[in-house]
Amino acid sequence: MKDLEKLIESSSTVGIVDISSLPSSMLQNIKKGLRGSAEIFVTKKSVIYKAIETAGKKKEKISELTNVKAHIPALIVSNESPFKLYKKIQKNKSETAAKAGDIAPKDIVVQEGPTNLPPGPAIAEFQKAGIKAAIQGPNIVIKETKTVVKQGDVVNEAIVGILGKLNIKPMEISLNVAGIYEGGVVYGKDILAVDETVYVNQVVQAYRNAFNLAYNANYLTKDVVLLKLSEAYRNALNLGINAAVLEKEIIPHLLAKANLQALSVAEKVPKEVTAK
């Protein structure tokens, strides 16, 4: 346990993941996928939580990590930010077979083409599920691509049987993150799963709204003041030109204006008059 305590104390990011629904082989694959970014330790729940509580003497509020819900907890440590770590965990998913009652994470599609199934009861199962199939030579052939379960729908037992025969594994399984600690804060999945693009867009929109409010209210922040000075200069210049104020920055504009007016008048004077 001492080694675990030292590891927790020396890592900037510490988390609890629930591995209760994760087969051992998939856990090993995920460990390999996270190698270099994070380490996962599986031991008794009491040992993990005791090590976290002991580390609480040096890491502020890390003991709150023991309050997260995990049926079979494992410890994950890293020196990356909780958000980067969570993203990497989500990318390290494994495919697994569907079970009756599972919710499809995406459309489950049976593609047209040959199968390795010999003629037999399977062809009746396909037809019952609305999959067009026929016997060609020694095997069953799917004649037309078919979406057998829409994203978000429940997978029933008949479809599970078909997917198993075709070795289609539509379900995705990964570490179930219960909570990740960094710098005195425990982040739950609801925070870690925030879409970065949506978050950045919201920040940008909030800045625009705040800027527009400050600008229209003449609240002089460092972002607003330069535009306000520019606006004031333009207004003063226009006022000076319209009032024919003889000031050094306005005179060139007045001369240009007078020149344009003279040219306009000249164009309206008959040519025979100007010839004289």
Features:
about 280 residues, alpha+beta, Alpha-Beta Plaits, Molybdopterin biosynthesis moea protein, domain 2, 5-stranded antiparallel sheet
- Count every helix, treating DSSP H or I runs of 4 or more residues as helices: 11
CATH superfamily of the largest domain: Ribosomal protein L10, N-terminal RNA-binding domain
Total number of distinct structural domains: 3
Q: Would you tell me which CATH topology of the largest domain applies?
A: Alpha-Beta Plaits
How widely separated are the two ends?
111 Å
Assembly state (oligomeric): single chain
Shape: flat
Describe this protein's structure:
- The protein folds into three domains: 2-93 and 174-194, Ribosomal protein L10, N-terminal RNA-binding domain (Alpha-Beta Plaits, 2-Layer Sandwich), CATH 3.30.70; 108-172, Molybdopterin biosynthesis moea protein, domain 2 (Alpha-Beta Complex); 200-275, no CATH class.
- With 276 residues, it is α+β, with helices and mostly antiparallel strands.
- Helix 1 (2-10) packs across helix 3.
- It has eleven helices and twelve strands.
- Helix content is 46%, strand content 18%.
- The longest helix has 21 residues, at 196-216.
- The strands form four sheets. Strands 2-3-1-11-12 form a five-stranded antiparallel beta sheet. A three-stranded antiparallel beta sheet has the order 6-8-7, covered by helices on one side.
- The mean pLDDT is 87.
